[in-house]
Amino acid sequence: MAVGYSGWVAQQVPVETPNGSNVSEVISNPEQGPIGELLHEFGIPYSDVFGAIITFVIALFVLYSLGRATIVPFVSRLLNRRDLDKHEKTPLLRLTKLVMGFLALAASLNIAGYGQLLTSLAAIGAAATLAIGLALQDSLSNFVAGMFIYIDRPFRIGDWIEWDEGTYAGIVEDITFRVTRVRTFDNELLTVPNSVLTDDVIKNPVAKDELRLQFNFGIGYDDDIEEATDIILEEAEKHEDILDDPAPTVRMTESSESDRGALADSYVGLTSRYWIADPNRGDYLKTRGEYVTAVKNRFDAAGIDMPDPQIDLAGQYGQNPAVRIDSVDR
After folding, report:
1. Per-residue pLDDT tens digits for 158-169
2. Can you spell out the DSSP letters for 41-58?
3. In the 8-state DSSP scheme, what is residue 232?
4. What three-state secondary structure class fits 208?
5. β-sheet bridge partners, residue 172
6. What percent of the chain has pLDDT over 70?
7. Dihedral of the CA atoms 287, 291, 297, 302 (nearest 10)?
8. Model confidence over 250-267: pLDDT tens digits?
9. Rounded CA gap, 83 and 323, in Å?
10. Which domains, from first to last, does the chain contain?
11. CA-to-CA distance for 162 and 182, rounded, in angstroms?
12. What pLDDT does residue 120 have?
């Protein structure tokens, strides 16, 4: 049995550390430490190996416990200063503990006299990391993007966001290092890779304490613009959820706010701008609906018309519509 075992050992392919020493030699012949010397004095065989193992275990326990008692609370306080909630703090604290554990492991190996082995493992780990990184580029991209979301905080859980030029919108339900989950207003759940959000323009209407809204009212050409303006402002001032400061305003609709600006084919455009506090999607829709309804009722009572859009069919056939229509009939 002994001969077979030694023959098996002889056939093994040695793995060398960067300085040329064999890994098995490093493990079986660690540097003699204080504990190893103590064991040697008591005549315990393999005192250097057992001493190194005991030193490693003690060092790992002490360093990791010290890190848990100092580094983790320190990182937790930093996260609290950024006003992160418990759900957002949990993955960051886990990552902190993982990094701290790796550092404690590396330091413990060095203290135990396995510094050369640590160098070898680091080289192997670097090569493995490179191979894994090439195979998981998208996942790593999403992970890095998730880190930026946690650091930059363009949005938080519970925020209403829009992206892809308004194609997608909803309430953020969950943020992980890989994806962000958004609940649409139709109650659909969107699982969005973090890299999509960090590479696009994100609109967060509720990032601030106040939100400015606007609505375009159209009145007839024969109606009194000043009277309509007064009604729009009065109803804004009456609504309890519309702020007095900044004060509501009414201006002639700009060309960028509608197809024809203030003077459309069938109406004169008046744009009302007003502010609400503590905005969210529900408050936004509720306030706008109540406000527009109140203005519409006042317009009806004052005899101010809100005309429907009209299409000039004659203009679709050029300078001589009669000829064009005749040619179509034939």
Report:
1. 888 988 888 888
2. HTT-TTHHHHHHHHHHHH
3. H
4. coil
5. 182
6. 65
7. 170
8. 998 876 555 556 777 778
9. 71
10. 15-135 (no CATH), 154-198 (2.30.30.60), 210-302 (3.30.70.100)
11. 10
12. 58
